[in-house]
Amino acid sequence: MRKAMIKESPITSPLSIKTESSEVLCLYEMRRWRRRRTKEDWAMEEDNKLSCVAKRFLPSPIQQLSLLAQQCNAINLAEGFPDFPAPLALKNAAVSAINSDFNQYRHVQGVCDELAKVVKKTHGLNVNPLTDFSICCGQTEAFAAAVFSVINPGDEVVIFDPSFDTYANVVSIAGGIPVYVSLDPPKWTLDTNKFLKSFTDRTKAIVLNSPHNPTGKVFSKDELDAIAGACCANDCLAITDEVYEYITFGDAKHVSLASLPGMQERTIITSSLSKTFSVTGWRVGWAIAPAFIASAIRNIHVRITDSAPAPFQEAALIALRSPPEYFESLRRVGYKLPKSCTLTDVHVSTYSAENKVDCVEEMIKQVGVVAVPGCGFFQTDSSREKGVDKDYSYQNRYIRFAFCKSHATLTSAAQKLNEANFEFLKMH
Question: Fewer C-beta neighbours within 10 Å, C or N terminus of the chain?
Fold first, then answer.
């Protein structure tokens, strides 16, 4: 009798099966119903369960290329992490902190105290270590918490293009509107008139990353003066990313925007230990801001991650007390490069819109060097500048190499690129 019931029962949603049906029959119907559903049905159901925020973001091409690099044993110049070891004193300090049981939630006030001394000595800024700091899980979280602290839905945020895509993504999550101002190649200079035209009555903040990723540009004093003047004139905040401040080339010297007249009270500085001390995995960063903004950043930080890793905060004390010679040594790591050449050393002569990712993948396989398609850093064609009579095809002509690597790594990569018979590339 049961076999007959099973054979004749129609295929319906398991939700329509009567409660008096046997457990065996219910399970059988569930399996039959699942088998009849198509891949499109499953994809639609999964899509409906995701938020609109989650659906905006695709997997990071940098991470995908790095995975391919590992499989091909290629030199990774895609990810922006140093490949030279962290200072031994820092590693020993972290081990000591772990062994001393600094392993629970913890705010190490000493980090703020040391940072206050550093920014005073380096940039001439007087900051209160008790009120003007938030220690976060890396610069990325510090930046996100800063944006969430000051940006409301509909606020416009000016971002220089090309840029690290996290900036625009975080602004969008907050409901803000990224407004892109393109830097002009080949030296990636700022057109002041174009920048000033980007401001409207909805502009709330600008984002400044200097030294700049991906171009390596260090914004000049004249450019910084123009940015500061616009911020003051428009009562606009500035959120800066200064993680590369000690990694510059030639005569270039980093100047913090907050150090310019009228800017400390409207600037949020974000930075971290990651690049300076080759500890990108430690996730110790900070935001420095006027007290009322720093308080908001701390409140958001606590609700997202609670605290930065305790033993690495302890080790940060050693890092921040490093002698000036350590920071100067960073300028001697790697090549002596022309100003703002991080994006221009390799020109991709036949780099069409269809093959930009394929080009990089082929370079991994044929040359054994990993880079990132430069087009992923450009957003101008979808911004307010779209109506401007200007050719943006140059965006497809670049690939980005991360130069925060050892001299040996960079020398080996250059040798591979020069020796390779690779039709996409022409070294300048």
Answer: N
pTM for the whole thing?
0.83
pLDDT digits (tens, 9 = 90+) for 148-189: 999 999 999 999 999 998 999 999 999 999 999 999 998 999
Name the nearest CA neighbour of 156 among 199, 112, 210.
199
Angle between helices 138-150 and 166-173 (to 10 degrees): 40
| Pairing state between β 399-400 and 372-373 | antiparallel
Ramachandran assignment for 420, one of left (phi > 0), alpha (psi -120 to 50 degrees), beta (any other): beta
Return the C-alpha torsion angle 311, 317, 322, 328, nearest 10: 80
CA distance 428 to 342: 12
- pLDDT tens-digit series, residues 377-409: 888 764 444 445 566 666 777 888 887 788 888
Q: Tell me how far apart the alpha carbons of residues 164 and 212 are, in angstroms, rounded to a whole number.
A: 9
Helices and strands, counts by H and E, the chain: 15, 13
Residue 370 to residue 189: CA distance in whole angstroms: 27
Contact in structure between 131 and 291 (CB atoms under 8 Å): yes
SS3 state at 203: strand
Q: Residue 184 gets which letter from DSSP?
A: B
